[in-house]
């Protein structure tokens, strides 16, 4: 149900480096992580970039928005200065740069499809196609642990991903798990439910596991809470505190 690593570094290197940057991946590696979650959004010209917010202002300076900016202009923006002077000059990565780095270092990827409003289907389809092409050998070999897991809060994005590249597995991200979660997950052909640990209950966790789905939580930063949800049957979670919760955490 969950052939993937149990502990996953959130947004690259959690809070130990600027989120969604290559420096984040490097920080994760430094703490022994070989599993990462990050966010992918389409540029104006339809290219996947690793960034969380559609609007500029938090991790990149200036005014504007990712879906209205060309990839080549996003790719030269500073995504590290906000975090601290040593990271000045970190760029907004292309998704393909993240793939290359993760393949070279043997890092498993949970790719969150993060569409800007109105670009749900386009983003889902693009991420799924690019991932399928980059992992064609692993998909052909049928080793699930070697294949990335796509996830999204957007049903539409995941449906488009399913249609574009059905062989790339999908996890359905839900902040609060609705009553009809199973019907939705079945429609998407999802292999896992990803949910906010704050709203999870032992009863819901048991129901999801009993239905045969993987169960993944975000974003767990307290070791005691992590132990508690693992006892409920949670298969894995992402964390910002890669310094407190290591890859071998039990
Ligand atoms: O994929 C889990 C988690 O990353 C979802 O929330 O806002 O951190 O992308 P966010
Ligand atoms: Mg995310």
**Helix/strand/pairing category:** alpha/beta
Radius of gyration equals: 17 Å
What is the percent of helical residues?
Answer: 25-40%
Task: Give the N-to-C terminal Cα separation.
Answer: 18 Å
Bound molecules: SN-glycerol-3-phosphate, magnesium ion
Q: Which segments are poorly predicted (pLDDT under 50) over 5 or more consecutive residues?
A: none
| Biggest sheet character | 9 strands, mixed
Oligomer: single chain
Q: Supply the number of helical segments.
A: 9
The averaged pLDDT comes out at: 98
SS strand fraction: 15-25%
Number of strands: 9
Spatial sequence of strands, sheet with the most strands = 1-9-8-7-6-5-4-2-3
Note the run of SSEs as H and E: EHEEHHEHHEHEHEHEHE
């Amino acid at each position: 149900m969950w052939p993937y690593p149990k502990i996953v570094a959130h947004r690259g290197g959690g809070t130990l480096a600027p989120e969604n940057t290559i420096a984040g991946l490097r920080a994760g590696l430094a703490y022994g992580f070989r599993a990462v979650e990050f966010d992918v959004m389409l540029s104006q010209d339809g290219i996947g970039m690793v960034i969380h917010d559609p609007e500029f202002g938090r991790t990149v300076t200036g005014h504007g928005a990712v879906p209205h900016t060309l990839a080549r202009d996003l790719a030269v923006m500073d995504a590290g200065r906000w975090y601290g002077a040593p990271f000045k000059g970190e760029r907004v990565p292309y998704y393909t740069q993240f793939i290359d780095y993760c393949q070279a270092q043997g890092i498993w990827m949970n790719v969150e499809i993060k569409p800007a409003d109105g670009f749900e289907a386009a983003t889902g389809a693009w991420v799924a196609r690019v991932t399928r092409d980059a992992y064609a050998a692993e998909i052909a070999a049928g080793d699930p642990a070697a294949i990335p897991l796509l996830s999204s809060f957007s049903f539409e994005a995941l449906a488009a991903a399913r249609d574009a590249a059905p062989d790339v597995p999908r996890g359905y991200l839900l902040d609060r798990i609705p009553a009809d979660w199973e019907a939705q997950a079945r429609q998407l052909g999802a292999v896992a439910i990803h949910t906010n640990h704050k709203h999870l209950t032992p009863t819901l966790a048991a129901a999801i596991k009993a239905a045969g789905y993987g169960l993944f939580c975000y974003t767990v930063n307290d070791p005691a809470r992590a132990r508690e949800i693992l006892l409920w049957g949670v298969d894995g979670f992402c964390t910002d505190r890669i310094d407190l919760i290591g890859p071998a955490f039990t």
